[in-house]
Automatic annotation (TrEMBL):
<keyword id="KW-0067">ATP-binding</keyword>
<dbReference type="InterPro" id="IPR024953">
    <property type="entry name" value="PP_kinase_middle"/>
</dbReference>
<feature type="domain" description="Polyphosphate kinase C-terminal">
    <location>
        <begin position="507"/>
        <end position="675"/>
    </location>
</feature>
<dbReference type="InterPro" id="IPR025200">
    <property type="entry name" value="PPK_C_dom2"/>
</dbReference>
<keyword id="KW-0808">Transferase</keyword>
<dbReference type="GO" id="GO:0008976">
    <property type="term" value="F:polyphosphate kinase activity"/>
</dbReference>
<feature type="binding site">
    <location>
        <position position="409"/>
    </location>
    <ligand>
        <name>Mg(2+)</name>
    </ligand>
</feature>
<dbReference type="GO" id="GO:0009358">
    <property type="term" value="C:polyphosphate kinase complex"/>
</dbReference>
<comment type="similarity">
    <text>Belongs to the polyphosphate kinase 1 (PPK1) family.</text>
</comment>
<dbReference type="InterPro" id="IPR036830">
    <property type="entry name" value="PP_kinase_middle_dom_sf"/>
</dbReference>
<dbReference type="GO" id="GO:0006799">
    <property type="term" value="P:polyphosphate biosynthetic process"/>
</dbReference>
<dbReference type="InterPro" id="IPR036832">
    <property type="entry name" value="PPK_N_dom_sf"/>
</dbReference>
<feature type="binding site">
    <location>
        <position position="568"/>
    </location>
    <ligand>
        <name>ATP</name>
    </ligand>
</feature>
<feature type="domain" description="Polyphosphate kinase N-terminal">
    <location>
        <begin position="12"/>
        <end position="117"/>
    </location>
</feature>
<feature type="binding site">
    <location>
        <position position="596"/>
    </location>
    <ligand>
        <name>ATP</name>
    </ligand>
</feature>
<dbReference type="Pfam" id="PF17941">
    <property type="entry name" value="PP_kinase_C_1"/>
</dbReference>
<keyword id="KW-0597">Phosphoprotein</keyword>
């Protein structure tokens, strides 16, 4: 009998444990000896920053649920309290694995190459003098010793700050026994680089906290230092914005940013050598439990590795080879609008340069024929050329409307700054819809031309961020399609006013219709299989956790639809369940670049419909965010994306395959050609321009919309 109930807890993996499994896949890259040495170190630093944010947000959210007696289990059957217990067990194991990777693998390997982090006692006399001078001349004036006694309460410690705890005996306490010892602390200032380069040796360094520890006695003159130990706190950093009650969202966000700094402590990291007495005191003062304490066997906070890598005088083989993103000659010179008017243009970053995207807004700012520019901004760089162009457009008299998402996590402060800057320049700045984050990536340029008003659009899977565009893989589309242009105008009217468009011609948006649209496409594949025809679904996303969508995919699998999923991060779907998910295969690509594009492909009786989107299949994306999904209507672009997907699916170097026991395993490489899809596409783009120039150019009819970027991509027969 066919299974029709797809809601059983055993059909789902817990979201938080699945995320921790993803971070473990990143850690595998740090342990992979085939990766360049310093890139391995960077992967280790990424696992640290990932884990920090996990405690800041996810653990904090579960703690709040427990605090208000919320005991509802998730789809996998785990209550918030049960999830916290499982997380603690998994994260303690993960941290041990992180530091084993650092101490036993990376430190010895770095040392063989002459890259060393030294203790003061290991330094030459000249290096010791250098460190001594650095402490007295640079650090001493900035450091603040803080004692704790009845008149000086335990100080507030900001999120992720590194601190040195000190047990000392003051002159008046001498001879009174161990109980007379006093507690003090010194915060390691983040205004200095955490890694100090030493003289005389090219790649010898000392950590800032060890410099301070060496001379900490000079901050407590007359006292005798008995013990020191480093520690770090991680706080609840989630914003709690009551938008319905906020008369001014900008001011409310600014207020919440201040409150966020004082969130409860979620994690306490201490040196493994910390005395029991010091540990007990910190646990009491910071109000944490034993499960929240992580005894670290190495430098606390491995993100210092990023500073180390930047300072190392590296050999070429220690880093990934550099590459130059491709830019088509017609996009590098002349009017970008002339190109888009003739045909849609597909971009695949970072293999394709991000410059055409920034140039699109820059040209709009100075083009006298442009009347209006409208754009959504979620995350932008600290020196964004797009912000500069939007300001210039407003100053040049264009109608400029910018939706700045103030609630973009950990970019709130940056976005508040840009919102004020844009308003000062004369832009009309909006903050979106109450209760929803605007995550859609959409830019609209309205231009007066000889034949009337024409809309030009850029839609994308990733942010308008010129920095992350160098290492996030994303896809984008330039188009002047009339129906999409009307839809784009309606979206902006909805965001800026009270417009409620009755329907959209080509675009689908969340939370209105995106989930239903995708489920309808899945239903089409189910219907095809039941009628004896082929059904095939290919999807790529960052995370898959929406219970309703997973159940729909199970229904499709049970009906006989073949489903290929590429999921970088969270995957709550289970594979290999007989009668439920035995037609579903899940891959995860974790490599040099961060896979960020969202692709949704449906066989559709041979039509092979392809859609790109800003949305992952997560409840937050489909229910609580404004997201955009757009069709690929030009045949050559659609074929290119399908070929790209097949290349990604064929990767067997950076891919892990989800197994029925929820583990992730690398493909068996015995007897097969190896393919690292990211490295292949980087290498391919180096020759892409030459191949295009060698191809005779055939003028395309306006309705053909021939994309001159397209070159059929196939997996190489042999890359060994």
């Amino acid at each position: 009998m066919a299974i029709t109930d797809f809601t059983k807890p055993e059909y789902f993996t817990n979201r938080e444990l699945s995320w921790l499994a993803f971070n473990d896949r990143v850690l595998e890259e740090a342990r992979d000896k085939n990766n360049p040495l310093l890139e391995r170190a960077r992967f280790l630093a990424i696992t640290q920053s990932n884990l920090d944010e996990f405690f800041n947000i996810r653990v904090a959210s579960l703690r709040k649920m427990v605090a208000v007696d919320y005991h509802q289990p998730d789809a996998s059957g785990l209550t918030p309290q049960a999830q916290l217990l499982a997380i603690a067990k998994r994260t303690h194991s993960l941290v041990d694995k992180q530091y084993n990777t650092w101490q036993r693998s990376l430190v010895p390997r770095l040392a063989t190459e002459g890259v060393m982090i030294r203790d003061f006692a290991e330094l030459s006399s000249h290096q010791q003098q250098f460190v001594t001078d650095y402490f007295h001349q640079e650090l001493y004036p900035v450091l603040t010793p803080m004692g704790v006694d009845p008149t000086r309460p335990f100080p507030f410690l900001a999120n992720n700050t590194l601190n040195l705890a000190i047990w000392l005996v003051r002159p008046e306490d001498k001879g009174k026994g161990q109980k007379a010892r006093s507690f003090a602390m010194v915060q390691i200032p983040d205004v200095f680089p955490r890694v100090l380069r030493l003289p005389d040796e090219a790649n010898h360094f000392m950590l800032l906290e060890e410099v301070i520890r060496q001379f900490v006695g000079e901050l407590f003159i007359g006292a005798e230092i008995k013990d020191t130990a480093l520690f770090r706190v991680t706080r609840d950093m989630d914003l709690d914005v009551a938008e319905e009650d906020a008369s001014d969202l900008l001011k409310e966000i600014q207020s919440q940013l201040k409150k966020r700094q004082r969130g409860k402590v979620m994690r306490l990291e201490i040196e493994s050598t910390m005395s029991k007495h010091l540990r007990k005191r910190l646990i009491k003062w910071l109000e944490v439990g034993e499960d929240d304490v992580y005894a670290i066997k190495g430098p606390i906070d491995l993100t210092f590795i990023n500073s180390l890598v930047k300072q190392v005088k590296a050999k070429a083989e220690w880093l990934y080879p550099s590459y130059t993103p491709y830019i088509a000659p017609e996009l590098a010179e002349g009017s970008i609008f002339d190109v888009i008017r003739q045909r849609d243009v597909f971009m695949h970053h970072p293999y394709d340069s991000f410059n055409p995207v920034t140039n699109f807004i820059q040209q709009a700012a100075v083009d006298p024929q442009v009347l209006a520019v409208k754009m959504t901004l979620y995350r932008v760089s600290s020196r964004s050329p797009i912000i500069a162009s939007l300001k210039q457009a407003a100053e040049n008299g264009k109608q400029v409307t910018v939706l700045v998402e103030l609630k973009a996590r950990f970019d709130e402060e940056n976005n508040v700054h840009w919102a004020k800057e844009l308003e000062r320049a004369g832009c009309h700045v909006i903050y979106g819809l109450v209760g929803l984050k605007t995550h859609a990536k959409l830019a609209l340029v309205v231009r007066r031309e000889e034949d009337g008003i024409r809309r030009y659009m850029h839609m994308a899977t990733g942010n308008y961020n010129d920095v992350t565009a160098h290492f996030y893989t994303d896809m984008g589309l330039f188009t002047a399609d009339t129906e999409m242009g009307i839809d784009a105008s309606n979206i902006f009217n909805m965001l800026s006013g009270f417009s409620e468009p009755p329907y959209f011609h080509q675009l689908a948006i969340a939370p209105l219709a995106l989930r239903d649209f995708l489920m309808d496409r899945v239903d089409d594949e189910i219907a095809a299989v039941k009628a004896g025809r082929k059904g095939f679904i290919q999807m790529k996303m960052n995370s898959l956790s929406d219970t309703t969508m997973i159940q729909k995919l199970y229904e499709a699998s049970a009906a006989g639809v073949e489903i290929h999923l590429i999921v970088r991060g969270i995957c709550n779907l289970k594979v290999g369940i007989p009668g439920v998910s035995d037609n579903i295969t899940v891959h995860s690509i974790v490599g040099r670049l961060l896979e960020h594009s969202r692709i949704y492909c449906f066989y559709a009786d041979g039509e092979e419909k392809v859609f790109l989107s800003s949305a992952d299949l997560m409840n937050r994306n489909l229910s609580r965010r404004v997201e955009l999904l757009f069709p690929i209507m030009q045949d050559d672009i659609r074929e290119r994306i399908l070929n790209l997907y097949q290349l990604m699916w064929s990767d067997n170097v950076k891919t892990r395959i989800l197994m029925a026991d929820d583990s992730w395993e690398r493909p068996d490489l015995r007897g097969v050609a190896q393919l690292d899809v990211q490295e292949y596409l980087i290498a391919h783009n180096k020759t892409l321009g030459d191949e295009l120039n060698a191809t005779p150019e055939t003028p395309a009819a306006p309705d053909a919309q021939q994309d001159r970027h397209f070159i059929p991509l196939q997996a190489p027969e042999d890359q060994s």
